Amino acid sequence: MRKFLALAILLAIIVLPAAAQLRAINPDSAVTTKHQVNIKGQRVPYTATTGTQPVWGEDGKTIAGLFYTYYERSDVKDRAVRPLVISFNGGPGSASVWMHIAYTGPRLLQIDDEGYPIQPYGIRENPESILDIADIVFVNPVNTGYSRMAEGVDKDKLKEKFFGVNADVKYLAEWINTFVSRKGRWASPKYLIGESYGTTRVSGLALELQNSQWMYLNGVILVSPTELGIKREGPVEAALRLPYFAATAWYHNKLPQDLQQKDLTDMLPEVEAFTVNELLPAIAKGGFLEEAERKAIAGKMARYAGISEQSIQQHNLDVPLNFFWKELLRDQGYTVGRLDSRYKGIDRQDAGERPDFNAELTAWLHAFTPAINMYLRDELKYKTDVKYNMFGPVRPWDNSNDRTGENLRQAMAQNPYLHVMIQSGYYDGACDYFNAKYSMWQLDPSGRLKDRLSYKAYRSGHMMYLRKEDLVKGNEDIRAFIRASLPKKGQPAMY
């Protein structure tokens, strides 16, 4: 018995570290494969490099390895004029999977034309990919995708280096510098694209890259942007939700007939004008708003939001998002999605103040998770036993001193080449389209940069590209943005 126990202990000493290594990521690795894709009727050859690149600590030792996928068109002779797009998703804690295999990359997951999961799961060509005009790298911050802190480091002590608005920006800027140097892309026009919290990330990176890495960009694309540190508490926050409510109510046929029969984009300007000119001042008056005016405002809100005047009065004109998602289709036994309110969910009971779950997110995870795991292993040949984190552990996240909107403004002011485009879905309740407009308005109070700021809206939600029509339109808008922001040969960066 003692011999057996001793043998078991010896085996554990030998085998367990080896098994643990199977679950550890190599912080500096690369696998390159060759492919082709048909984009807009044109056959585009490219290489895909999938791997990890280190993050180094102050002592020069590796403290993490970031997982990335880099697509490079292979028939390009002069990379000095070839744009490079650096892509991030958000969360924080989300992998780069979403835009990677559903928007700009050369492969597209199998979903229906409105973005719902279908089986069998899989990947197909993306005929709308921007790889025809730009190379793309999809980056996964620490604990997302296959990115991890290095083995042997004190992970608790290192959290503050990764998990916060400003820490995130700082280490990613260093990582981008190394990536650009390794790939020989210093001469290339460079673009950042971020989605959701990724817009906070790339807005901060725009200035950090200039000030700390001396790397200047041509463009930043904000997909479904966050608040970017631009404050909007109180009456502003409460009022700005209404246009999103109206768009969602229109989609679900909950508006009065005179509004419902209008097209979405013909109806919304009326709601936006009411929001800015009447609702915001009314909420600002609080309890001193005259009762007759309160009733009139609540009546108009009910007309636009598709919910009862009584429920609006009960919330003192400040209708919470969770309540709206629960209330709009309560009489039909459904909730509506947070990130995309076209999606419907079913709760345990119709009563309550908030949905039981996010109907849209469960559908997306249903479609994306099998697709990315199959794609990376089978087509891109990246083999590992490490789990691909769709969402990874990054909490607590330090949100203090978020000045990313101001950082982006300052980067634009310092760099006359730098252009910014915002893309928003009308049915996004998490980063809604009217708040995105408000961010753009407040980004440059002087109005002197507005010729380099543009805004595009789409008839879908947070990931507007999941709808086929908006996949086409969104990528075309990116192409047009890149072309417009490339300076003519010899054009100086000057005012």
From TrEMBL:
GO terms for biological process: proteolysis. Keywords: Carboxypeptidase, Glycoprotein, Hydrolase, Protease, Signal. InterPro entries: AB_hydrolase_fold (IPR029058), Peptidase_S10 (IPR001563). Residues 1-20 form the signal peptide. The keyword Signal applies. GO terms for molecular function: serine-type carboxypeptidase activity. This is Carboxypeptidase. It comes from Pontibacter korlensis. The lineage of its organism: Bacteria, Pseudomonadati, Bacteroidota, Cytophagia, Cytophagales.
